[in-house]
Amino acid sequence: MTDERAHWNERYREREPPTEPSDLLREWVDDLPDGRALDVATGGGRNALFLAEHDYSVDAIDVAEEGLGIARERADERGLSEQIEFVRADVEDHDFPAEAYDAVVVSHYYSLNALPDLKEALAPGGVLLYEHRLHPPDDRSSRFRFRANELLRACLDLRIVRYEEPMGITEDATDVRLVARKPSSE
């Protein structure tokens, strides 16, 4: 078992993952193209469940069996198991299908390495919703957070619909948020 998987399994055993979908997803769900969605680092499945409730066929990927077990239970309780495919895999090593997803949701998972594969997995006209913590300027220990404009620069091959970073990083304002659309092949 990898150290990363062991870390997340232990975290899910100790603490119940959130149940509410991300604010960014909730805000944009009605503007997303219909079809198939990918929920990256699904954890307890909050975003996958919300997408399934909005008639998406969802692939929910996570490295931790514990998180996926919680997500499966929640899907069963809501009658959504048929709409969600749970995938236990490391996002960094997973072979995503090309141009398969109409929406890709990444909520609080940092990976510039996997981002090219996630963008490739977007269908033409597909939308990427990405939110994660921003790196505080005076904190050298936050290696799994984005630096100023880092996510924006990494997605300039997409059409940026919305991008925001807080004016200053505070207890209430820490997230960078991006909504971007893959150009259609038209």
Label the overall shape.
globular
Beta-sheet strand percentage?
25-35%
CATH architecture: 3-Layer(aba) Sandwich
Distance between the termini: 45 Å
Protein name: Class I SAM-dependent methyltransferase
Organism: Halalkalicoccus tibetensis
Region (Disordered): 1-23
EC number: 2.1.1.222, 2.1.1.64
Give a brief rundown of this model.
With 186 residues, this protein is α/β, with parallel strands linked by helices.
Describe the structure.
The protein has 186 residues and is an alpha/beta fold. It has one domain (3-181): Vaccinia Virus protein VP39 (Rossmann fold). Helix content is 28%, strand content 26%. The chain has six helices and seven strands. Helix 1 crosses helix 4 (65-78). The longest helix is centred in the middle third of the chain and has 14 residues, at 65-78. It comes from Halalkalicoccus tibetensis. Residues 1-23 are annotated as: Disordered.
For the structure shown, list the relevant keywords:
globular, Rossmann fold, alpha/beta
Strands, helices and their partners?
Blueprint: H1 3-14, H2 23-28, E1 36-40, H3 46-53, E2 57-62, H4 65-78, E3 84-88, E4 101-107, H5 115-121, E5 122-133, H6 150-154, E6 159-164, E7 175-181
Parallel strand pairs: 1-2, 1-4, 2-3, 4-5
Antiparallel strand pairs: 5-7, 6-7
Helix pairs in contact: 1-4
